[in-house]
Amino acid sequence: WQLQASGGGLVQPGGSLRLSCTASGFDSDYFSIGWFRQAPGKEREGVSCINSPRNGDGSSHYVDSVKDRFTISRDSAKNTVYLQMDNLKSEDTALYYCATNGRCGPRSSGWLGYESWGQGTQVTVSS
C-alpha cells in the first residue's frame, strides 16, 4: 500500500491550496484517510480525517484550528482524497502527510492507528 501526498507550495496569508493524497495498491474507499501536519520544532498533529463510505458512514472531522477553513473530500474514480485549504494562515505552515486505516472521530486526539504514511508535502504560508 502506498500514499502519495502532493499539492503543497508557497502561498500568501489568506490564500488557498488543495492537497491531494493518491492511493496505490488498494481501494482507499474502504479505509479512513487522515491528514496530519508537523511544523518545525512541534509535534505532529491531526488536521482532518474522513471515514470510509464503504465500511463506515463516510463522515469527516477537523481539528478546531482549521474548521470552516479546510475541507476534506474523496474522488473515488481517482482513488484520491483532497484537502482544500482556504484562508490560510502563517500557523498552517508545516509538512503535511496523509495516512490510512486509523480511527477517525470528532476528537483529533483519537486519530490513532494510522499507517502507510506518505512522504509529505510542504505548505508554507508567508507574505
Which regions contain 5 or more consecutive residues with pLDDT less than 50? none
Structural class: mainly beta
Arithmetic mean of pLDDT? 96
Rg result: 13 Å
Order of helices and strands: EEEEEEEEEE
Helical segment count: 0
Helix content: under 10%
Strand content: 35-45%
Give the strand line-up of the largest sheet. Answer: 2-10-9-4-5-6
> How many strand segments?
10
N- and C-termini, Cα separation: 37 Å
The 3D shape can be described as globular
Largest sheet: 6 strands, mixed
Describe, in plain words, how this protein is organized in 3D.
With 127 residues, this protein is mostly beta strands. Helix content is 0%, strand content 43%. It is built from no helices and ten strands. It has strands spanning 2-6, 9-11, 17-24, 33-38, 45-50, 60-62, 70-75, 80-85, 94-100, 121-125. The strands form two sheets. The protein has a six-stranded mixed beta sheet with strand order 2-10-9-4-5-6, with no helix packed on it. The radius of gyration is 13 Å and the shape is globular. The chain starts with a strand and ends with a strand. The mean pLDDT is 96.
